[in-house]
Every structure is written in C-alpha cells, then in structure tokens.
Specification:
alpha+beta
Length: 968
C-alpha cells in the first residue's frame, strides 16, 4: 500500500472515529419523570427522546410547525392535502424511473394550473380528461403504496398523519431494532418528496370532506372559531378546505408550501420507547444532517384579534341532534394562562364531581354536556357544549350553563373540589406516562406551541399552588359576556352542494413492481427481537379468597395505580336490564350518602368505578390510586347494597334515555351501526335487544336495584392488577367484598347468532347525505377453525386491514373511490360462533356502483403478488415479535383464550406457522371461503340519489326502516 493510500485510510478512520465520538449536547429538566432529552442538531432539527423499556417498540412523530393556519387564502386545505401527498414517495421510492416520470408530472402540474382557472363546465371537463390521460402515462412508473410497504417491511404500526391549525404530524410505531431503517426512509421522504398519484388522492381527500359534511360538530367548531377569531385563519379557513378549493388545487402552491415550511429548523422528531438515546441521536444525525436549514423561515402575520365585548352568536343547521357550543378566548401558545383555564374546565366538568356534573347532569336538568380547554399556538379557549332534554329550548340550556359559570365566579363550590381536581389531574398525568404515544404527544404540543420543556414538566407543581380565590378572581376577570355561542339546530343545510364524480380512469396498482430502495430495506438485516408470548401459568397468579372466589392476579410495580374487577359470565343476552340499571345507579344516593356525595367521594379518592355489560359478561371495575383501593371498594359495595330508590329520578332518566335514542336516529354513524347489526344478526341483535320505551315506563325502579344487589349471589371471579401482593389483595377482598353464603350459577341467555348469506341481496336503510356507508357481508355458517388462524391472520394483513392491503390499493389508490376502505375475515370471539367476511367503504353517492364492482372484482379474483405476499408475511412476523402483553392486558388475554376453549396464547401458534404458509395456500383459502359466495350488501343512503337499477341487478332489495334497525 502506498504512503498516500495509508494516509487516506488513516484519515477516513479518523473521520469515522470523530463522527462516532461526536458529542451531542442535550437538555434535560430536573425532576422530569420521563427523563426526556432534547437535542438540537446543527441544521436546527429538534429531537425529543424518552426511554421506556416495557415493550421493544418506539412511538415516533415527525412534527412540522405548520398547518392550515398557513394555507394560502386562495387554496385552503393545502397543508392537509400535502400531508396526503407525503405518502407518495420520492425519487428513490414510489417510482420505477424518476427521470422518465418527471416530465409527465410536470405536464400534470401545468395542466392543473390552467384547469383551476377555468369556469366553463365543458372546458373543465375536457381539461380534466387531459389530466386523466397524462396521469395514465405517469402511472406506468408509479408504484402506489411504496411508503406503506416500507413501513410494513420494518414492522411499523399506526402509519398515519394528521393536520390541524398549527401542525402537520406524521406518526409511526416501530420495532426498537428498526431505528436505522426508519430514519433512512424518513430523511429521504422529508427532503425529497415527489408529488405523484395526484388526481386519485384528490378524490380521497374529497371523500374525507364528504364524511365531514354529515358531522355537525365540525360545522359548530368552524362557526365558533369564526366568531372568536374573525380575522385570523383559525376562524376564516378550515383544515379540510373549501369545496371549491379542493376541486381546484394548485400543485405549484403545494410545492412552494413544502419548500417554505418543511425545513429542519421548523421540524421536531419526537420519540418515546425502548431505545439507547445515544445511538438513536447519532442515527438521526447520520441521515438528517444533510437536510439544509432555511435562513428565510417566516410565517404569515395576522392582526391581533379584538376583544369580544358582548356575546356573539350564530346558527348552523344539520341532521344531527340539537345542542349549543359556547367558548371564551384566551392567550395561547406558551402562556401560563392556560394552566388556570384547564383547571377551570375540570372544575366545571370532570364526569364526576364538577359543577355541571353535580348541579346539571346529576339532577338531570339537561341531557348532558361538558367543558374543555384547548391550547393553540396563537390562541387558547375554554369551550362548553350542552344538549337539551326533550322539549327544552337551546336558550334554556344556555341559561343553565351560564348559571354554573356564575357559581364558579361566586365561589359556590366545595373547598375540597379544587384539591380533588388537582389530584385527578396528577392521576391522568401518571396514566399518560405509561404510554409512549401520550409522552410523544406532549413533545409535539410543546414544540408546536413554543413551550419550554421545563414549563411542561413543572405544570403540575404550578397547578398545585393555585388557590380557590385565584380561580374565582380569574373567572370574574375573564368569563363575562365576552363569549361566542353557536346554536346547532336540526334542519336542512342549504350550504351543501352536490358535486358529480369526475371521470377517472383507474391507474394500475403495479403491486409486483419494487423500487431498488424498497428492496434494499426489505433485505436489510437487523438484530432480531425475540417474541414473548403470554404464559398463563407463569405470567399471572391464580388463587382464591377465603370464601372461595377465584382470583386472577398480575403485579404492577411501575406505578401506584390499580385495576380491580369482579367479572360475571352473563350479560345482556340474559337480562337486557343490565344496560339500564347501572345508569340508574349513577343518580342515586344511599342511607348515608347523597348522590352528589357519592360522586364527590370517588373523585376525592382519585378513583372511579363502572358497571359494564357485554353480550355474555358483566364487569364491575374499580380503578385509581392503589393506596385508596380499600376505600373505593367500600364505596362501591356500600352503593350496591344500600342504594335508595328514587322514583322521580327514574322517570327523569327514562325521559333522557328516550331523548338519546331519538338523537341517535338522526346520526349517520349510529344508523350504520344499527343497520350492520341488523344485517349481521337479524332482528335479535345487540342494538335492538334493549328495554323498549314502554318497558322503561312500566318498570319498577326497585327491581333494577334488586338486580344489581343480587349480583353478590352469583358465581364470579376477581381480576386485579396493581402493587398489592396476592395476600394483601385477598385480605382486602375478604374484608370488603360481600357475597352470598352459597353462590348460584349465572343465568343463561339467548345468544346473538350471525345469520347466513344464502343469496346475493341488498339491505337498504334510509339516510339523507352526500355519501353512502356500505358493508359487504358473507357468512356460510363455517365454525371457527383453530388450525386456520395463522392463514386468517396473514390473509387480513395481505388483503384488507392496512394501507398496504389489496382493498386500500384498489379502492382508494387506483380508483379514488374512498377516503377509507377495508376488509377482514372475522373469526369468533367465543365458542360456537361463525367465521365471516366483512368489507366496508364510505363513498360519494354516485360512486356506489363503482365501489360494488371493485369489491366484487377483488373478492372473486383476489389479486396475487409474490412480493406483496412476502411483505405481508415479513410485516406480520416483525409485528408479532415486538408485541408485548402486559399488566391487566394479561388477564384480558387469558379470558379471551378461555372463551375460545384455549389455555394458551394463540399468537404463539400463529407466529410459528406463518413462515410455512405459501401464497398458493392463501389463495386457495380465499377461494374456498369467500370468492364468488353470496353477499349481503348493507347500504345506508338516500335512495333518490342512488343507482337503484344497478342495485337491482345485484339481487333482491330489502328496504328496512329506521324504526326496524333501531327497534325503537
């Protein structure tokens, strides 16, 4: 070797050593329970890291400090649409030949700039045909969903993104050993994004817009924002954008927006999970350091909003139930003012002991409501929503709410409420610290709102020092006649406009193509993570109380929190009163405590309880601080044993239930839930199996209390996760849980049974909207086959449950038919149930038959791809290997296995069998169970706007009324 070569080699070694030894400076905060490290790289990229070793996974966010606030006024919805386009790839992936593709993409870009200025319908139609034609040429190089394939290949979960006023955020949950691949992919994505697949993705965004049209809460939020901030984008434009702007997009504006805001000194990487932070930051620096910072980063500036000096109100119309929303505006961003606002919101409403809870909800003075605080970068607010009882006016509800604001301002609340609020806020914080996602969410909020991490960490300490007098003074200063009010009334929304579907030629899915970048990631080697399955003989303790109650115990030494449940193996199938009795109990006191005192006691203990009934099980669950478990148990036992009947309260509750049922009939999602339950189970189903209004009227409320009191006489078991030892738990249960001397067998109920599909048929339920909800259902009466569980798991991954599945590719990516679409082969959750196929989509009315044809095509002849199959297998293996069942979830897993007659974790068998499954075997499975089988099409929609002749060709149409599907 020459001297020169030796010197070069030594130089390279020295450089590598220097790089490895780079001293990454970071900030920490003393007393921070998350142990957060905050780095800022040379290019300004902010990185938040927190270590949690509970599971070998890491939750990741890449947060860009820009959202709809910065949308150009002439192309609103741009930030959100860019979010969608960030999934389309770069020059390295998403294409087979970026160089040949580029001029075609440029042509599409220029055509859209001309198209958006046209107003003549015929000219627009011809211009769009030209866009569609060139898009077909570009699609020859486009490989849809390559980003999703990359994420699947590394075992990522929760692949998604969201956009709001101030942030566009991209999320993944990755295996701990895939940080290198994740960073490599994301660095390329954020530096080299390419806009492709534009016109089909535009239709997906428009379908998302359509979904929002039927959600009246969206309209209320838009209206109240406009009242509060009339000259700021928070109030003048929405994240989804206007109908006109969505149909007239500008790729030029999107590129300009990307180049302006997607720069490292405007971005934060937020990660929480199982990691070595020293290695992770070095990896991030390795891939992101080439990202050039912007020296010209700036944001549009808007005038300061004038104070509201009098109430401002407006009205929005829609099909859903009537209510009001009111709000007061505050400072936002890093203002400490929001500490107090958050406490006030919780004093007003915490679902237990707040002013609105005790004075309005507990006394059934209105149907329901709540308060919440919201912080944005440039504004904060205190918002209250409230719904009327039957016959109650919205103005009456407004007066009730304002009455509680006056109680707050006068200090008319118990002195112990504020300390209880603070303790419960601490409890919520401790719960959040156990979840990687919620820790990472805190990082995003801090970065976007310009908050120092020290300010976030010290928040509870600041709140703990707030006094009642300070709350009263703050309320009197800020909560006056300076609020905005939105009346949401039922009626036709005349602002909605129908837009016909564009003529889009489906683009090829190209699922057998792979870019070299994807191949490289798929073939990359990482240190494998070994799976850990639940061992029901080792991971939970099985014991008994002195009175013979079975106990399932799992320790939780990481926090002072507990979950205790008494589980009964019968539910609503045996007695549908179990749905009403717990609701009635919420409004009752005892021989020692008033109803209000019961709620207040639980809240003071930082504990809570619930009684929930499923089809065939009932759980009385108590949660909170473990040190207070004995007192919380006493409260529950005392309430169940000594609840005093209140006939007036019962009559009021019945009227509220009737109003809730009436309101649900006007809600699109509830209607679809009722239709699918009816179509799956028939007339006897979980939605219709409720006490009728007539039964409610005639029921003696004492019988409901007797029903709950009698639970102590039935066989049941104790489920617990917390820091008490098994011996300590048994002692607490023996002393605090009353049971009968002899326990009876639980009652048996009439089982909900899935109906078979014997022929093609359409079940049509009415709902006036711009879109349809549709489910396809096939049930051949096939019972559960444990041996086929691995192939079912892999089929669902390959075919229908994710963005890399066949369904998503064919219905959204290639045809632009929907915002979301999916399918899965459902296996029973208990012995005796049937397996069945279900597929769902939400789409514009005039796209309905296109959806039907697309679904039929891929079900009858499932597309086959060796590459997609191997990728689905790899994703499944990595995902299972890094999943961990912990804490109370171990008990839930054990109970799920029991219901299927198993004594082991079925995922262990799935994991072992997955490598052996071939594409041929999976295709054969699909043919035997789904292909060309009779389907029941359950459609919720407006018949006068649907292609009924097309539906008639499918099979017999069965029209079901709203009354039929709800049963009330």
């Amino acid at each position: 070797m020459s001297i020169k070569s030796i010197m070069v080699a030594l130089l390279l070694v020295g450089t590598a050593t220097a790089m490895q030894a780079k001293d990454y400076k970071y900030q920490t905060v003393k007393g921070d329970p998350t142990g957060t490290r905050i780095y800022t790289l040379d290019n300004g990229l902010r990185v938040y890291l927190s270590v949690n070793k509970e599971t070998p996974r890491i939750h990741t966010y890449i947060a860009v400090k820009t959202g709809s606030r910065n949308d150009p006024a002439e192309t609103t919805g741009l930030a959100h649409y860019l979010e969608h386009l960030m999934f389309k790839g770069t020059k390295q992936f998403g294409t087979t030949d970026a160089e040949k593709e580029a001029p075609l993409l440029k042509d599409i870009e220029e055509r859209y700039e001309k198209y958006r200025l046209l107003t003549d319908p015929e000219q627009r139609k011809n211009a769009y045909h030209g866009i569609d034609s060139v898009s077909q040429l570009a699609a020859k190089y486009f490989i849809p969903n390559e980003y999703d394939k990359l994420m699947s290949s590394i075992g990522a979960e929760k692949t998604n993104a969201y956009t709001s006023n101030d942030v566009t955020c991209y999320t993944e949950d990755i295996p701990a050993n895939e940080v290198e691949n994740w960073a490599k992919i994301q660095a390329d994505r954020f530096q080299n994004m390419v806009i492709r697949g534009f016109h089909t993705e535009l239709e997906a965004v428009y379908e998302e817009f359509n979904i929002g049209l039927t959600r009246d809460g969206n309209k209320e939020w838009q209206a109240i924002s406009k009242l509060l901030m009339p000259t700021h984008p928070y109030g003048t434009q929405t994240t989804i954008g206007t109908q006109e702007h969505l149909k007239n997009p500008s790729i030029v504006n999107i590129k300009n927006y990307f180049n302006r805001y997607y720069v490292p000194n405007n971005v934060a990487i937020c990660m929480a999970g199982d990691m070595d932070p020293d290695k992770v930051i070095a990896t991030i620096d390795k891939y992101f350091s080439s990202w050039e910072k912007s020296d010209n980063l700036s944001f549009p500036q808007f005038p300061k909003q004038k104070p509201l000096t009098a109430p401002r109100d407006t009205t929005v119309m829609g099909t859903e139930a009537e209510n009001i929303m009111m709000a007061w505006r505050f400072d936002g961003g890093n203002s400490l003012q929001m500490d107090t606002v958050d406490v006030i919101a919780t004093i007003l409403s915490n679902n237990k002991a707040g002013l609105m809870d005790i004075n309005l909800a507990q006394k059934m003075k209105y149907l329901g409501g709540g308060a919440f605080a919201m912080t944005m970068a440039e504004s904060g607010l205190l918002a209250i929503s409230a719904s009327p009882k039957e016959g109650q006016s919205l103005d009456d509800v407004k007066k009730l709410v304002l009455g509680e604001i006056e109680n707050l301002k006068k200090g008319n609340f118990a002195d112990d409420l504020l300390p209880a609020v603070i303790n419960n806020m601490k409890l919520d914080y401790y719960h959040a610290l156990e979840k990687n996602k919620e820790v990472a969410d805190m990082y995003v909020d801090a970065f976007i709102n310009g908050q120092e991490w020290k300010t976030v960490v010290e928040r509870l300490d600041r709140i703990s020092k707030i006094t009642k007098a300070q709350i009263v003074d703050f309320a009197n200063k800020h909560l006056n006649n300076n609020y905005a009010l939105v009346y949401k009334r039922q009626g036709e929304d005349t602002t909605q406009k129908k837009i016909d579907k564009p003529q889009i030629t489906p683009i090829p899915s190209n699922r057998d193509l792979q870019s070299n970048f994807v191949k490289e990631i798929i073939l990359s080697k990482t240190t494998p993570i070994q799976p850990r399955f639940v061992d029901f003989n080792k991971d939970l303790v099985k014991t008994k109380t002195k009175k013979g109650l079975p106990v399932l115990y799992v320790p939780n030494k990481n926090s002072g929190l507990f979950t205790l449940a008494f589980r009964y193996d019968f539910g609503l199938e045996a007695d549908n009163r179990l749905d009403i009795a717990p609701d009635y109990l919420e409004f009752l006191g005892t021989n020692k405590l008033t109803p209000e005192q019961v709620k207040q006691r639980f809240y003071q203990l930082a504990c809570d309880y619930s009684i929930s009934a499923g089809a065939d099980n009932l759980n009385i669950t108590i949660t909170g601080l473990n040190e207070n478990m004995p007192k919380a148990l006493w409260l529950v036992e005392h309430l169940l044993a000594n609840a005093k009947v209140d006939n007036v309260a019962y009559k009021q509750l019945v009227e509220l239930i009737k109003k809730v049922r009436k309101d649900r009939r006007s809600n699109q999602k509830y209607n679809f839930t009722a239709l699918t339950a009816y179509g799956t189970y028939g007339a006897y189903n979980p939605i219709r199996n409720q006490m009728s209004n007539d039964q409610l009227d005639k029921t003696n409320p004492q019988t409901l209390l007797n029903l709950l009191k009698s639970l102590r006489n039935y066989k049941h078991e104790v489920l617990y996760c917390g820091e008490s030892t098994p011996e300590e738990l048994v002692k607490i249960i023996d002393e605090g849980h009353a049971i009968g001397k002899t326990l009876a067998n639980v009652p048996q109920g009439k089982r909900y049974t899935e109906t078979k599909t014997l022929e093609n048929e359409v079940w049509l339920a009415p709902y006036e909207a711009k879109n349809i909800y549709m489910r396809l259902y096939n049930n051949s009466g096939k019972g559960w086959n444990l041996e086929q569980q691995p192939i079912v798991y892999l089929f669902n991954e390959y075919f229908g449950t994710g963005m890399n599945g066949i369904v998503f590719q064919e219905l959204r990516e290639t045809r632009g038919l929907a915002y979301s679409a999916g399918a899965r082969y459902v296996t029973p959750y208990r012995m005796g149930g049937n397996e069945y196929l279900q597929a769902e989509i939400i789409s514009q009315n005039d796209k309905m038959m296109d959806c039907v044809r697309a679904f039929n095509s891929i079900i009858d002849e499932m597309p086959q791809s060796d590459k997609a199959f191997e990728l689905a297998k790899q994703a499944s293996m990595k995902r299972i290997a890094t999943e961990r069942t912990t804490k109370f979830a171990i008990i839930n897993a054990y109970k799920r296995a029991q219901r299927l007659g198993l004594d082991f974790d079925v995922m262990e068998r799935v994991y072992k069998e997955l490598p052996k499954i071939t594409l041929k075997e999976m295709v054969e499975f699909e043919k035997q169970t789904m292909a060309k089988k009779p389907l029941r099409y359950m459609i919720l929609g407006d018949e006068k706007n649907l292609d009924m002749k097309g539906l008639e060709k499918i099979g017999k149409i069965k029209r079901v009324t709203t009354q039929e599907i709800f049963g009330f």
